[in-house]
Amino acid sequence: MADLLQIKNLSKHYSETVAVDNISFNVPEGCCFGLLGPNGAGKTTTIEMMEGILKPTSGEILFEGKPLDKNYYQGVGIQFQHTAIQDFLTVKETLKLFANFYHKSLPIDELIELCALEEIISRDTRKLSGGQRQRLLLALAMLNDPKIIFLDEPTTGLDPQSRRNFWQLINNIKSQKKTILLTTHYMDEAESLCDEIVIVDQGHIIHQGTPTQMLKEHFDGVIISLPGEIKGALTNNQIDFETKNHRVEILSENIDSSIKFLLEHDISLDGLQVRSPNLEDLFIKLTGHQLRG
Amino acid sequence: MKKFLAILSARNKEFFRDRAALSWNFMFPVLLLFAFGFMFSDESNSLYKVGLIKTSSESTQLQAQVSENKKAFESLKFIDFVAYQDVDKAIQKVDQHKIDLLVDFAQQQYWVNETSSKGYIVEQLLIGQHPNMQRSQTDGRAIRYVDWVMPGILGMNMMFSCLFGVGYVIVRYRKNGVLKRFQATPLTAFEFLSAQIVSRLLIVIAVTSILFIGCNFLLDFYVLGSVLDLLIVAILGASSMIALSLLIASKSSSEEFTGGLLNFASWPMMLLSGVWFSLEGAHPIVQKFSQIFPLTHILNASRDIMTDGASLYDVQYNLLVLAAMTLIFLALGSWMFNWGSERT
């Protein structure tokens, strides 16, 4: 896959802070690319520089091999983390308003169907729920049939059902072979949607690759989780574990031998769970703190 | 053009669908106009005002005679005497009931407005002393306070509508991210700003015209000059106010701060531009200072057109100042404008 976007030595400094510090990565065409990190990691600053909204302090951004120019917005779609739309317009009027900004736009009816806007098409945008609002903003980002869509934490603040519905919409867009750049601090979201990810923390890239590749590289086995805090036996023995959210989590290469070990040490298996390591575990392993900050 | 028209139409819809703001835009000036109209409609002044034409080049003998006649008339109590050099202007004052009688002792002639009760009484006093003077009569209507204050109130409403209707809206858009969303499209700042200007201009002119026509129907304003000229003054005046508003709102995303700035601009104009009272008797420094306000030029031009029948040529100074202000504010405002995405 050719690289649609190339980020080279990108930095953004504010008066007292360095929000993004000399990062480089490429976004391949047709890929759902995740930019992950805790709050304040520099995700939004990075994505807004890529969107052409913020001016980098230094570094270069190339779209289809060329620096961003005035025609850039004809070919990209953007959904911001925090944004409002003009008051006193209906959903349809808002779509029509934005459609007028582009040389070419998708038929409104197609967008309505793609983003499940049928039921709210005549509703005043002030009266939309969080999920409905995000679907409208996604439709606005899709309006010009863009080559790349930037989605900055699109499901933050949504209830679980709305999040799942939104994921379905993103999967529909992915099936059209569109390139998507997604920032999120929800690891399940990244695992479910992203083909490739970059993890940033404090303005730096701390890891890059496909989710499967990254997990394979850093974890071998599964995580056995037990409720409560187990003192004594485990602390004195050579076993890889940590305590998280009132549970003990043991990284095990062999479930049978780990369970045998626990039973030998009279540790109750009540409430035992076995799961595969996820990106959140990876993040904690890499940085020593939780992803949601 | 497509982008400009789309934003223009969206902004107009927003304005007309915001019923509360819309009704206030109409009600506020009407309430003020009627309140002030009725409050001052019964203004009674116990003094009489008589204009005297100054004598200049007559012979010494005649001057002595004129002076004697004048002295006798001037000895009457409870009459204010005002000297005029320009006969036409003085006659216009009689027309407008600003003076009750005009006397030219040199020409043995006087003018009285036959619709003025006070004029009748002073005339009787004059012919009691000088029965042989030649009578000329006018029949102009009196200028009421409501005629005088109407351009002030409409101008003030226009000022608030332009300053807050553009400046406040842009800052709100910037604060809540509407501007940022527009920035992420091919829409340019010029297209966005010009649509805001044209939208507000259309709205303000429509509202002001409806108010003028509606109130004129009820109050029958004194309009000597051309209504079309008044419309041109209104368009140019509103443009200068909108441009000032864009300048004030060009950078900030704080509604409180911008609100403060807008008040800082509007209150001195409301007090010192001659909305409520004439600045003719004010201290020269105040008069000079008032020239920096667009509202002063709007009101001076519109009152000259309404009460003196001035043409656009006569008020060209005010029009030029308004045009210059519009261009300067607009250039600065566009240059300083930001969409609000850059943090520091």
Automatic annotation (TrEMBL), chain A:
SUPFAM superfamilies: P-loop containing nucleoside triphosphate hydrolases. PROSITE patterns: ABC_TRANSPORTER_1, ABC_TRANSPORTER_2. It comes from the Bacteria. GO terms for molecular function: ATP binding; ATP hydrolysis activity. InterPro entries: AAA+_ATPase, ABC_transporter-like_ATP-bd, ABC_transporter-like_CS, ABC_transporter_ATP-binding, P-loop_NTPase. Keywords: ATP-binding, Cell membrane, Membrane, Nodulation, Nucleotide-binding, Translocase, Transport. Its main location: membrane. One of its GO terms (cellular component) is plasma membrane. Belongs to the ABC transporter superfamily. This is ABC transporter ATP-binding protein. It comes from Aliikangiella coralliicola.
Automatic annotation (TrEMBL), chain B:
It comes from the Bacteria. Pfam families: ABC2_membrane_3. Its main location: membrane. It is found in: Membrane. It comes from Aliikangiella coralliicola. GO terms for cellular component: membrane. PROSITE patterns: ABC_TM2 (PS51012). The lineage of its organism: Bacteria, Pseudomonadati, Pseudomonadota, Gammaproteobacteria, Oceanospirillales. One of its GO terms (molecular function) is ABC-type transporter activity. Residues 115-340 form the ABC transmembrane type-2 domain. The keyword Membrane applies. Keywords: Membrane, Transmembrane, Transmembrane helix. It is a multi-pass membrane protein. This is ABC transporter permease. InterPro entries: ABC-2_transporter, ABC2_TM, ABC2_TM_bact-type. The chain crosses the membrane at residues 21-40, 148-171, 201-224, 230-249, 261-279, 317-337.
